[in-house]
Amino acid sequence: MKNELSQILGEASAEIKNQDADLEQIRIKYLGKKGKLTDILKKLGTLPAEERPVIGAFANEIKTKIEELIAKKQKELAGLNIEKKLAEEKIDITLPAKQKETGKRHPISQIMLSLEEIFIGMGFNIVKGPEIEYAYYNFDALNSPKNHPARDIQDTFYIRKDEKEIREDDILLRCHTSSVQIRFMEKNKPPIKIVAPGRTFRVDLDSTHTPVFHQFEGLVVDKNITLVDLKDTLEAVFRGLFGEDAEIRLRPHYFPFTEPSAEVDAKCFVCGGNNENCPTCRGEGWLEMLGAGMVHPKVLAGCGIDPTVYTGFAFGMGLERLAMVKFGIDDIRNLFENNMRFLRQF
Fold first, then answer.
1. Strands 286-295 and 192-201
2. Residue 149 belongs to what domain range?
3. What whole-number percentage of the chain has pLDDT above 70?
4. For 182, which of 49, 141, 252, 294 could close a Cys bridge (C-beta 3.0–4.6 Å)?
């Protein structure tokens, strides 16, 4: 029986030495419940009593040696696997690294954040409202009559519209963020000092207009507010955005929600108003930038604010136009085409 046990050790040793993967099958083959070593140990009962302890001890030595050989081989294979993995995953430091491009804010986002910082510094609060709006907040509450051209279905994106009659509960995509001002005045009483940035929508597309654009509107309502306060505020904004040399002027205009109303022009930032051939201002020296005015008494009264006690001013500017002027962009569509070569400039 000793010879049989020695033979089992030799066979197991040879198989373990030549095995490159699964050693569990070898362990089961020799040491399992039905393994070769187990089968021999079952025959111990047939031996004389004096030989049983000697053969039993020898069998345990054989078992221990086979287990040690398996453990040693497992450790060896593990080391080989690690070396193989390291060889496969090694980095060739002589190759150039993959370039990772750092993201930047879009020109419109840059302008919006700059304006928000300026107005927050002046004590304004930032408020926002729904982009899908009722015609009441978009037109009626802003003193725009039912026959106003902007309410035509060809000029405004209506989601639901009664074809027979223009109604206050028609649903549309807002044309301006002035609707946010109305909603705020309905729920808050003076003093009011807010700005309302956000996306707006109109049926328009050319080199200076897009169907989706961004507006930044402001509203101040309190006692004794005048046009002087409006002009001072806008001058501070333009100096903060374009530098201390920035100048503005107010020209009489008409808006249904303000009275009096004005178009606000800025001195050309390229030629300073001194070049008749300037491609930016076309020799006029001034650039039309935004609309503004004193809040119409009907608008205040419609929101439950007494126009005999309170006055206010409002303004609205397009962020795309400000970005085009500040960054020298000649076509508004460049801002929406996601051309990385264009956007990298900013």
1. unpaired
2. 107-343
3. 86
4. 141
